[in-house]
Specification:
about 200 residues, mainly alpha, 6 helices, 2 strands, about 60% helix, about 5% strand, disordered C terminus
Length: about 200
């Protein structure tokens, strides 16, 4: 019952998460607040996938708006029966929530791979992914971070922002899973009468 009751508030939680995802992803393009590296394409390749802006950002935001619209009491009646109408709304909500799982899950994977790969930075050997062979081990090897000389503090910058993006997309993934579960429970366990419709003559 609690899961069904919270179904509507879950969609609202996606909006601030999506907006934060867009903001944090944009910050990845400006290490230390400077745009010079973005202009010269001296940024990690995963930044150009636009996951935080497109997938866990704009797409999740659009899905959240559509889910909230579906949950409003004023909604287009797709059939004469109220039960039938609610069933269609629930089905569409499940499809949208599954899309949210796909978008947020994809983003979470790409952010994690980016964190493991490490930043694209300048070192004694030139511009390269100098931590790509460490399988993420560089994250606890703090003295090695000084090998990146440009942009300044790029390891800290990328690590913090990517960790935030992983957390945001992970929360979106959990919320979308809960939304699917709530709608399935509502549909299959009797809140909506799906299979039996009583017509009064």
């Amino acid at each position: 019952m609690a899961l069904e009751t919270c179904g509507s508030c879950l969609s609202c939680l996606l909006i601030p998460l999506a907006l934060w995802s867009i903001v944090v992803n944009i910050l990845l393009y400006f290490p230390n607040g400077k745009a010079s590296h973005a202009a010269s394409y001296q940024l990690p390749n995963y930044v150009w996938y636009f996951e935080g802006i497109c997938f866990s950002g704009v797409m999740i935001l659009l899905l959240a708006v559509m889910l909230i619209t579906l949950e409003c009491s004023v909604f287009y009646r797709c059939c004469q029966s109220e039960s039938c109408n609610k069933t269609y709304r629930s089905f569409i909500s499940i499809v949208l929530a599954l899309l949210g799982v796909a978008f947020s899950g994809y983003s979470c994977i790409i952010f994690t791979l980016g964190l493991i790969q490490g930043p694209f930075c300048n070192s004694s050997g030139g511009w390269d992914y100098i931590f790509k062979d460490t399988a993420g081990g560089y994250l606890t090897d703090y003295p090695a971070w000084s090998r990146c000389t440009e942009p300044a503090n790029i390891v800290e910058w990328n690590t913090i922002l990517l960790s935030i993006l992983i957390a945001l997309s992970g929360l979106q993934l959990i919320i979308c899973f809960l939304k699917v579960a709530a709608e399935l429970k509502r549909t299959l366990c009797g809140t909506y009468s799906v299979f039996v419709q009583v017509t009064n003559y």
